[in-house]
Structures are given as structure tokens and as C-alpha cells.
Specification:
With 313 residues, the chain is an alpha/beta fold. The chain has 10 helices and 15 strands.
Length: 313
Amino acid sequence: MIDNDMNGNSIAVQVNDLRRTFGDFVAVDNISLSVRRGEIFGFLGPNGAGKSTTIRMLCGLLMPTGGTGTVGGFDINKESELIKKVIGYMSQKFSLYDNLTVEENINFFGGVYNVPKEKKIERKEWVLNMAGLKEERHALTRTLPAGFKQRLALGCAILHDPHIIFLDEPTSGVDPISRRNFWNLINGMSQAGTTVFVTTHYMDEADYCDRLALIYRGKIVAEGTPTDLRRKHMTRDVLEVNVDKVVEAFNTLTFHKIEAAIFGSTLHVVVDDEETFRERISSVLAESGVAVKGIEKIPPSLEDVFVTLIEVS
């Protein structure tokens, strides 16, 4: 049961003016979005922006305060129990049982999701292969590295082969290589036709997504493909400034009303014109005793786009 838009393209998730309040606090502020079947939709924003609250409403775990929506064609306000049967959900704190073996965890979640008896063995072997845990099937889950636990958690969440999966901060707390491997798995599922709705606060993961919505303080501040967001919202130049004292440099540029953000050991400085500001940046930093090792124009990252958007919102 999947909705269809006016052009005949299937819609897996549709939300209109979705709202959730907790007392006087507005966690999700009248957001609207749609996710097409088979795409990877990224829901990006800092911690506390409203991502997890939104995903819990879409999964039928939290009732909206206002607004309407469907997931897999089912009404989020009236058919939450039906939604739970057709989706996969991996939360930030997805609970594997550390005192069970890998295989015992898979068996347990197979029962939770009512995987048909004739499919249980096939699906279990699929999870073990996908997670690279065939040789560790009898190992206690607590002995696994974080990246393998993450893949096992994903496998347990999709044992019942759902058409739509919701992943809430799935790569939080794992190393960069494990994050990349995990995204390879997500891409494979998308290519096989599964719809993936994923939340993350890692802006560098945006380019793995087909489309994105950027959320800040409960509101969607931009939506589109990664390329569209860069083209539409970054009309100015981005300079990477390499300095010896990054915090002092940031404070100095901010004092002189030059838009800057710290990126690791460098600064990203957003300017109206590269040539005009190169000399000014070098000058004000030199006057403050900060040594400039280099200034280079770079393509804008999605984090540059996000910083620009929230500064004007």
C-alpha cells in the first residue's frame, strides 16, 4: 500500500504540517516533506533539532500534536500499529542483547518480527553474510567491535524484509571506516528498491543521500539534492584558511564581522569575493599575531551550507 504523487511516482513517506510539542517546548514545528520509494532520504541537523522526535512519529512510536502524514500508505495518526508491521526501525539505542550470541540475537528478533518459519533460516544467513559475522555466529555479542554490532543491529531491524527502513543516527559513535562500510550497505539496499529514511548530525554523510532535508530548532530550513542545496544556498565563495592558532583566528575574524567556522585545524571563511577578502583576512590575522599558512578557495561542504542557512534563519 503505497501513495502515488501526481506524476505517478510512488511516495513512501508523506508529511504535512507535522508538529510535536512537549508542554511549551516545540520539538517539531509544522514540517512538511515527502520521500519517494527507493531513495535514500537524509534528515540532517544538530543534536536536539527534532530529528529523533520526527522519526518516532513516523514509526508510530509517538503521536503527533498536529499535522497529517502517511508511511507506506498508512495514516500516522490512526494506523500506527499497521505502520510498525511494514517498516524497519533502528534507533540510536537499538538494543542488542550483549549476553546472547550473535545467532541468538537474530533468532530473538526473528520472533519479534514474526518472520515466517520457512524464511527464518534464509533471513538469518542473509544477516550473517551482510554483517560479515558468519564466523562469529556463536560469539557473545558484547565481544564484537562497535562496527560489527552496528551491522548486526541493522540486520536484526530488517529481518522481516521491510520496504521502508528508518535509521536514527545509525553511525553515531563508530569509526570512519565502519561508517563508510555501513553506508555501502545502505546504498545496496536502496538499489534493491528499499526506501531509506536516515537521520544524522554528520554533515559529511549528506552526499551519500539522494535528497536531504536540513532541520534546525524543529523547522526545515532547506530541502533538495546535495548539489541543489550547494547551488541554491552558496552563492558566495568559501576559503579554507590554514593558521597556527585556529581559535584565536576564529575570534579575530568574527570580531571583524567576517563569517568563519572552525573545521578541525582550519577555518572555513565565507566571503562575497575571493580576491577582495584574501588580503583582508591575511591582514587582520597578522595584526592579531596569527600566522597564516595558506588560503585556498574550496568547494562548499554541506556543513558550510548549513552554517550559512542557520545564520540567516
